From TrEMBL:
One of its GO terms (molecular function) is hydrolase activity, acting on glycosyl bonds. Keywords: Glycosidase, Hydrolase. Coiled coil: none annotated. The keyword Hydrolase applies. CDD domains: GH36 (cd14791). Its EC number is 3.2.1.-. Transmembrane segments: none annotated. This is Glycoside hydrolase family 36 protein.
Length: 599
């Protein structure tokens, strides 16, 4: 590993007065620069894992840079990578991670799904500028991270060069962040539960109105879905856009006042009570940053705006002002305290990340938008469910949420799989939810099942009209939602092992001491443990599942269809090698091994 000197692009050059120091952290050689005198410490948290702290002698932007040989690299993982997992060029525009959007973490993945270099920055509130990519001049992979630093805290970098599985290194980053977040005195009182815990209902299947109803939502239609949703295994319902207005056009010109529509929800408290009586927790949607042009608030908020979004017909209000924070928090608190809501779906936090925001006026009490967002979220009720969404994935948001959902990808199982797996890798204590599942009324049971299997390691949200589903489609939902609930502990909190990020995770595994659950999205062999129970969920079109066996013994096999109907129940004699077994598309294999085989 070598330092990064001489490879940066013209717009990366620092002013002439910049000081530069060289830092050694194990095998890594780093360059730190700032327009200040720099001191540094290097701590080895574990073999091959170092924490580097670089402190200026006065407030200054501090940059740390390094590079690694780009040998046997297969993918670059970043939380904002979307569908792209290739190796970016180093000359690409730097990305920004801050409280409102993104997270300061990345991983260069090598053959065998090992981490060639995993890094994370300790700053999770203020903006962190990050550049990563292939350096064409040398064939190295270059990194730098930069943010404004104070003498008391500095820039803190975690660098993992252990060569361990990439998913393990990212899980360790989440643990590192969690310890830092919990130690912050300013957020300790708003932490929503013991470390690693959120309310169990946040980890159970939910029903969402968005794809099923769009903005055509009312109390009658919601209550019509509540009973069937609860019967199928859902434990929460999320009412999305449309509840606050009679307008049914796209856009946000009518948001901001957050009064229930008098025609669609004439008795919001009574309606909420009826849905909860059916057995569901109730969450209500809010587009937090917006005030629409067609509201009475429009003129009042103009002096407190960050930007006008013409295509949304709304203004983004500025949380640096106490007036705005109290206005927004008051609306959301009312839903919980007066209407009986169990939770809030908070949308569009990333819209607060406005480039070049205006200078704050005299009524503002904080200088940065991200600090304003943090203070706004700290005003929300702490005894309710809160759903956030990609791309606002910063660990700085953990104290204010219970779950985080994949960004919108309707009818795109592969995207839903990738986004939920990406979230699982760095979500820390939060429950990870899939984007809502929808399908055409004529969709086959097998394809409904494959959508559910594609998000098996997250919480599914269902968004179709349950009263019009065929008996076969309902059987699929009942079977797979039941499986998700029964095995939630392993699926959501077991050791998590996604494979091949460069191929959009064609196989994913979760395991506990005696249970292994593998989802198969491509015709790859499935490793069989020596003991315990193996479950294989097949979302691939091929029904010929190859079992990779490394031992001899006996196993009991049961194969079920996508509807949960048993089609094969037999005893297998195992021997080392690869052996096929037929598992229908959308179906499930249970393999009991060792002593379990004769139980």
């Amino acid at each position: 590993m070598t330092t990064a000197t001489g490879i940066w692009q013209p717009h990366d050059r620092s002013p002439a007065e910049t000081r530069e120091v060289r830092i050694v952290a194990g095998e890594a050689e780093l360059t730190a620069t700032a327009a200040a005198e720099l001191a540094w410490t290097v701590t080895e948290d574990a073999e091959g894992v170092h924490e580097v702290r670089i402190t200026p002698d006065r407030p200054a932007a501090v940059r740390v840079a390094w590079r690694v040989p780009c040998v046997a690299a297969t993918a670059f993982w970043a939380p904002d990578g979307g569908e792209h997992r290739g190796l970016p060029p180093f000359w690409r525009k730097p990305r920004v991670a801050a409280l409102e959007k993104n997270a300061p973490v990345g991983c260069l993945v090598g053959a065998g799904d090992v981490s060639l270099c995993t890094y994370a920055v300790g700053e999770v509130i203020r903006p962190v500028h990050i550049r990563t990519g292939v350096v064409e001049e040398t064939g190295d992979f270059g990194f730098w991270a930069e943010h404004d630093a104070e003498p008391g805290t500095g820039l803190v970098l975690r660098l993992d060069l252990t060569g361990r599985p990439f998913a393990r290194t990212l899980a360790d980053v989440a643990e590192w962040w969690r310890g830092d977040v919990r130690e912050r005195a300013d957020v300790a009182t708003t932490w929503r539960g013991p470390a690693g815990q959120v309310p169990e209902v946040a980890r159970m299947p939910a029903y969402s109105t968005w794809y099923a109803m769009q903005q055509h939502v009312d109390a009658v239609s919601v209550e019509r879905q509540a009973g069937p949703a609860a019967e199928l295994g859902c434990e929460a319902i999320i009412v999305d856009d449309g509840w606050h207005s009679d307008d049914r056009g796209r856009g946000y010109g009518h948001v901001g006042e957050w009064e229930p529509s008098a025609t669609s929800f004439p008795d919001i408290s009574g309606h909420v009570a009826a849905v909860k009586q059916a057995g569901l927790a109730y969450l209500l949607w809010y587009a937090l940053p917006f005030v629409g042009r067609h509201t009475a608030l429009w003129d009042r908020v103009q002096p407190y705006s960050l930007a006008y979004k013409e295509h949304m017909n709304a203004v983004i209000v500025d949380p640096r002002y106490p007036y705005i924070r109290e206005l927004l928090a008051g609306h959301l608190t009312r839903a919980v305290r007066e209407w009986g809501m169990d939770g809030l779906k908070i949308d569009f936090i990333d819209q607060f990340a406005v480039e070049d925001p205006p200078e704050p006026g005299p009524e503002a009490d904080c200088a940065t938008v991200n600090e304003g967002v943090r203070r706004l979220l700290a005003l929300l009720p702490t005894d309710c469910l809160v759903e956030l969404r990609q791309p606002y994935v910063s660990p700085g948001l953990w104290p204010y949420a219970t779950m985080i959902r994949a960004s919108d990808c309707p009818l795109s199982p592969a995207h839903n799989r990738q986004r939920t797996v990406d979230l699982r890798l760095i979500a820390g204590p939060l429950a990870v939810h899939a984007d809502m599942l929808m399908w055409h009324p004529e969709e086959t049971p097998e394809r409904v099942a494959t959508q559910l299997v594609n998000v098996l390691f997250a919480v599914p949200q269902i968004s179709v009209d349950l009263t019009t589903q065929t008996p076969e489609q309902l059987e699929v939902l009942r079977f797979w939602l039941g499986f998700v609930k029964e095995h939630a502990e392993v699926l959501q909190r077991g050791a998590f092992e996604p494979a091949r990020p460069d191929l959009v995770y064609p196989q994913v595994t979760a395991r506990s001491a005696d249970t292994v659950i593998t989802a198969r999205y491509a015709p790859l062999p499935v490793a069989v443990p020596e003991a315990g129970t193996l479950w294989v969920a097949n979302a691939d079109d091929s029904a010929d599942v190859l079992l990779q066996i490394g031992h001899s013994g006996t196993a009991r096999a049961r194969v079920q269809t996508c509807r949960g109907r048993t089609v094969n129940d037999l005893t297998l004699e195992l021997s080392p090698g690869t052996h096929p077994i037929t598992v229908p598309t959308g179906g499930l294999l249970r393999l009991d091994l060792g002593s379990e085989a004769v139980a």
